[in-house]
Specification:
The complex is a heterodimer.
Chain A lengths: L4 E3 L2 E4 L5 E6 L6 E7 L6 E7 L2 E5 L6 E5 L5 E5 L8 E8 L9 E2 L3 E5 L1
Chain B lengths: L2 E4 L4 E4 L4 E3 L1 E4 L5 E7 L5 E7 L5 E4 L2 E4 L9 E3 L8 E8 L6 E2 L3 E6 L1
The chains are: A mainly beta, B mainly beta.
């Protein structure tokens, strides 16, 4: 049983560019959450998708957007990249929206903005 | 709002030493509390959890007790191994809120 997978593993972009990160949830999970983990910090919640809709959102600007597909996979899009967007982006899946304790995390995508 | 404060690292211990990583929280209502571990190059793994006061979570020799009176959830292990070297995150969730994490504590265990 495959766990949460994310792609790509690493990415280098320049300021002002746009980036798309992808996540496939664990089998049987229908809820996907995205977190940003800056160097030396704990993960910060970006948003959560369930039934192809954004259900909850953290304190992130509109440059951060997402999408969930019918097969429950998800994308995180960041527009107009800033140097401060450099971070590890973690995707987590869970079987039922709101059951935070059952979140399973992927290995993350490390984004570097130059 | 909800918040988690955990002791700053890094923490360096010799193999078989006793480990304590302190964690305190601020939350409305009755949160669930968690410890996650992040091994080098990997994502977060749920290590243990407790959902109500006085509950003790345990896994792989690690333990933490939910102390409502002191708003704490300290992580302990009686005898650490080199393979325990990782970053440990304390986290909470209250109701339907997303997970709120502490900044993490890096543990290095030397042989």
């Amino acid at each position: 049983d495959a766990g949460v997978t994310q792609s790509p593993t690493h990415l280098i972009k320049t300021r002002g560019q746009q980036v798309t990160l992808r996540c496939s949830p664990k089998s049987g999970h229908d809820t996907v959450s995205w977190y940003q983990q800056a160097l030396g910090q704990g993960p910060q919640f970006i948003f959560q998708y369930y039934e192809e809709e954004e259900r909850q959102r953290g304190n992130f600007p509109d440059r951060f957007s997402g999408h969930q597909f019918p097969n429950y996979s998800s994308e995180l899009n960041v527009n107009a990249l800033l140097l401060g967007d450099s971070a590890l982006y973690l995707c987590a899946s869970s079987p039922i929206s709101g059951r935070q304790e059952t979140q399973y995390f992927g290995p993350g995508t490390r984004l570097l903005v130059l | 709002g909800n918040s988690v404060t955990q002791m700053e690292g890094p923490v360096t211990l010799s193999e078989e030493a006793f480990l304590t990583i302190n964690c305190t929280y601020t939350a409305t209502g009755y949160p669930s509390l968690f410890w996650y571990v992040q091994y080098p190059g990997e994502g977060l793994q749920l290590l243990l959890k407790a959902t109500k006061a006085d509950d003790k979570g345990s896994n792989k020799g690690f333990e933490a007790t939910y102390r409502k009176e002191t708003t704490s959830f300290h992580l302990e292990k009686g005898s650490v191994q080199v393979s325990d070297s990782a970053v440990y995150f304390c986290a909470l969730a209250s109701g339907n809120t997303p997970l709120v994490f502490g900044k993490g504590t890096r543990l290095s265990v030397i042989a």
